[in-house]
Specification:
Distance between the termini: 26 Å
Low-confidence stretches: none
Radius of gyration: 23 Å
Number of helices: 13
Helix content: 25-40%
Mean pLDDT: 96
């Protein structure tokens, strides 16, 4: 290891390698805070060539490497172990090009998502990817985990935003697939190997993202609803009538009550309701869009699909609605459990009821809350199990994922597998699928140095 560190220091410069106390706390664990460990060292390359050099040296030495981005993940995918080298892309940031004709933006992997959003906005475009961690997550990590977020219902996952990318294989080979073209049917779509592979097949270093026309109007409302069927009905009617639903977030009463009862912000509604939904409509006709939005909600009120609704009259008020959904009040809970699952939209209501019943049967009085994007089949589950440590966390996860398995869903909608969901991968993937994953891993990383123990 001493010899390898010297060779890495020679390649990256004296400030390109951190060892010992200077590693700091940041590189020990992702957003979960679960099982933090100091890596052997942290490498901080500034270019693709330096990433390739680091991986080539590590491949020759058989040294395991854990790629790290903004460390905002929730599956343990970027958490190192004591025998691994952390490869941080935080110095590889910057927008290389914004092409108005192609409607694309090209950036280095360490560029924060928010920087890309702002660059697109300034150029008169819109980037379809948006996450709560936009200020600290990095686009390379977004791509490597196939991140979702609140705009998926209209624009799709990170995968749908990527036209091209550059990645470095375990042996240092650079794969340049930096296409700006939407249609490129020349053989295998190589970039798809790296999107969502969580740094286990290669390290994403640059990306080309497609941009969308910037909406000129935005309408937001929070609605109270009588049941889950009404949540689905409102969504489908809005999509049919408006066509431009850009975000749709549902909250079961347990989640809404937990957040609003712990906040001093004014509540949108004076009385409690079974369900709540925040709906955003992005259009191009400010006056006409507002009228259509209000007319839709009025008709839904008349039909009893919606019990009450508040339309945001300012950006500040709209932001207050989204703050309820973001649920920062959960940060005050000691050791909360945050899970994200996916099931057919029509099954999500039944899933929540079955899961709550199973959790309460074993841990009466525990806090079990449900919320999510709904329109893209994504449901989040946030739990306060009242302590119990790692054993109770695993037991609660097993309880939730068993229901997911029995209902034919996915144990991960958008957060990836990492280490925290690895034992449950077989709940959502067949043996044949997992074996194919192993074959791909063996082909691209025969020594198994890239993010070992993650996903598989």
């Amino acid at each position: 290891m001493t010899e390898l560190l010297e060779r890495l220091r020679s390649t990256l410069g004296p400030d390109g390698i951190r060892v010992g106390a200077v590693v700091g706390e940041r590189h020990r664990v992702d957003r979960t805070g679960i099982d933090p460990q100091a890596p052997l060292a942290v490498a901080l390359p500034r270019s693709t060539a330096e990433v390739a050099a680091v991986l080539r040296l590590c491949h020759e030495a058989g040294q395991a490497v854990v790629p790290q981005g903004g460390l905002t993940g929730l599956a343990g995918g970027a958490t190192p172990t004591r025998d691994t080298l952390a490869l941080s892309l935080e110095r590889m940031r910057g927008i290389e090009e914004l092409d108005p004709a192609a409607a694309t933006v090209t950036a280095l992997a360490g560029t924060p998502l928010q920087a890309l959003q702002e660059a697109a906005e300034e150029a008169g475009f819109f980037l379809g990817l948006d996450l709560g961690a936009r200020g600290s997550c990095q686009i390379g990590g977004n791509v490597a985990t196939n991140a979702g977020g609140m705009k998926v219902i209209r624009y799709g996952m990170a995968r749908e935003q990527v036209l091209g990318l550059e990645a470095v294989l375990a042996d240092g080979t650079v794969i340049g697939a930096m296409s700006k073209m939407l249609k490129n049917n020349a053989g295998y779509d190589v970039k798809q190997l790296f999107i969502g592979s969580e740094g286990t097949l290669g390290v994403v270093t640059r990306v080309v993202l497609k941009l969308h026309p910037r909406p000129s109007s935005l309408a937001t409302a929070i609605c109270a609803l009588p049941g889950y069927a009404a949540v689905v009905t409102l969504l489908r009617r809005a999509q049919a009538v408006l066509g431009g639903v850009s975000a749709y977030e549902a909250m079961w009463h347990d989640y809404y009550d937990f957040v609003t009862s712990r906040s001093d912000r004014p509540k949108p509604f004076a009385t409690p309701h079974p369900f709540y939904a925040i709906m955003e409509y992005a259009g191009v006709d400010p006056e006409g869009d507002a009228a259509r939005f209000e007319a839709l909600l009025a008709s839904m009120l008349e039909e009893g699909v919606v019990l009450d609704a508040v339309i945001a009259r300012s950006e500040k008020q709209a932001r207050s609605f989204w703050q309820i959904r973001e649920g920062l009040e959960w940060d005050a809970v000691e050791a909360p459990i945050h899970l994200d699952v996916s099931l057919p939209i029509g099954s999500l209501g039944d899933f929540a009821e079955r899961t709550r019943a199973a959790l309460q049967a074993r841990w009466p009085g525990s806090i079990n809350s449900f919320y999510g994007h709904i329109g893209d089949s994504n449901l989040h589950v946030s739990l306060d199990m009242g302590g119990g440590g790692e054993a109770r966390r695993h037991a609660a996860e097993e309880t939730v994922y068993r229901v997911v398995r029995d209902m034919g869903g996915s144990v991960s909608a958008e957060h990836g597998i990492g280490t925290l969901k690895r034992r449950y991968l077989g709940y959502s993937r067949s043996e044949a699928e997992i074996e194919l994953m192993r074959r791909l891993k063996q082909a691209l990383d025969p020594k198994g140095i890239l993010n070992p123990g993650k996903v598989l």
